[in-house]
Write a structure and sequence with these properties.
367 residues; mainly alpha; flat; transmembrane
Length: 367
């Protein structure tokens, strides 16, 4: 007690600044101790949770594999299987356990196919997981809605089409992406009908995913893409252009020719590329008619496709563009001359004065 009084008297005699420093040091020391204990607790908690997760994952995986191999067919459930279902119904009442069970089902679903995959889809319904997925659609959080749609897609729940359609033009793109994947994954080409009234853009990444899914179903008959090529939604037009190329939709060539003058540059470039892929010669006259007014991307794309549809009538146009200020266009023009008018190329080389053109001749190995 005497020592404490001495310390207190000593502290009171200190200047104000030193008092503040001492108080600050003590507070900082206490905070450091607190955070050290908290980090220790957090680390212990996370390790414990990770261990529980691994044990539950292994347990659920064993139960599910047992369930799958106990059943002789997917239409009847025996008593042992029912016991596993009842056990899972109890587990999924806990959010943590429910999340792990869904991850196990997802893993198994991606590893198997055929009747066993159908059995997992049925198990998703019988355990009550379907109800939890549907409840997520009622959430005010966009990530929960997206997760719910993803689960309904993965376990092939086709009878909730109308409920999913409500989110077709949802403000958050992640939700719209999941809706589009739901349509195409479960209804294939017919699922593309959502493009008819789509007001929001389709992300480039989702377009790639949708095309990958569609290409798994080569036996499906593609629907008429003409309305989508005429859509006011530019992303729908761009997606339809990809479909036209992949599925060789020659019947839409007239519409593609009209798109050469579309207001969107990206659409014009894509139309030029696809018409070149189809080797449509009418493309040349349309593009050449206002070539100077077109963007650099369009000009470069046009010269690339010209290599497959070039004729003798194009010689003057090609020679004219050997003086184009754009180096890439100039190079492509010289490349066309080498392929189709080598004599004219030699003549131009003899009269060449520009350093850039000399580089082009050397690259093309013109002698």
């Amino acid at each position: 007690m005497f020592n404490n009084q001495n310390i207190l008297e000593y502290f009171n005699q200190l200047p104000t600044l030193l008092k503040i420093v001492w108080i600050g040091s003590v507070v900082l020391f206490i905070l450091i101790l607190f955070f050290l204990f908290y980090l220790y607790y957090l680390r212990t908690y996370l390790r414990s949770k990770e261990l529980i997760s691994k044990n539950l994952f292994t347990q659920y995986e064993n139960d599910l594999i047992t369930y799958l191999y106990l059943g002789e067919n997917t239409s009847q459930i025996n008593s042992e299987q029912q016991t596993i279902i009842d056990k899972m119904k109890v587990s999924i009442q806990n959010t943590f356990k429910r999340t792990i069970l869904i991850s196990v089902l997802s893993k198994l679903k991606s590893d198997i196919s055929g009747e066993m995959a159908l059995a997992i889809n049925q198990l998703f319904i019988k355990t009550g997981l379907l109800n939890y997925a549907l409840k997520k659609l009622e959430s005010k959080k966009w990530n929960q809605i997206a997760l719910g749609i993803k689960e309904l897609t993965q376990f092939e729940i086709t009878n909730v089409y109308n409920e999913i359609s409500k989110f077709q033009n949802y403000p958050k793109q992640e939700v719209r992406n999941q809706v589009q994947l739901y349509y195409v994954s479960l209804f294939h080409f017919k699922g593309l009908e959502f493009l008819d009234n789509l007001k929001t853009p389709i992300s480039e990444w989702n377009q790639i995913q949708l095309l990958e899914i569609l290409q798994k179903f080569d036996d499906q008959e593609i629907t008429d893409i003409s309305p989508w090529l005429k859509s006011e939604n530019d992303s729908v037009v761009l997606f339809a252009l990809k479909l036209a190329k992949i599925y060789n939709q020659f019947q839409v060539i007239e519409i593609l020719l009209q798109l050469l003058n579309h207001k969107n540059k990206e659409i014009r470039v894509s139309a030029i590329e696809i018409l070149g892929y189809f080797q449509v010669k009418e493309t040349k006259e349309i593009v050449k008619s206002n070539f100077l007014d077109r963007s650099s991307e369009e000009k470069i794309t046009f010269f690339k496709i010209l290599q497959d549809i070039v004729t003798a009538d194009d010689e003057a146009f090609i020679i004219e563009n050997t003086l184009n200020p754009n180096f890439q266009i100039r190079f492509l023009a010289f490349q066309l001359l080498k392929k189709n008018h080598i004599e004219k190329l030699h003549e131009l080389k003899q009269n060449a004065t520009e350093f850039d053109n000399s580089r082009i001749f050397n690259f093309l190995e013109v002698v």
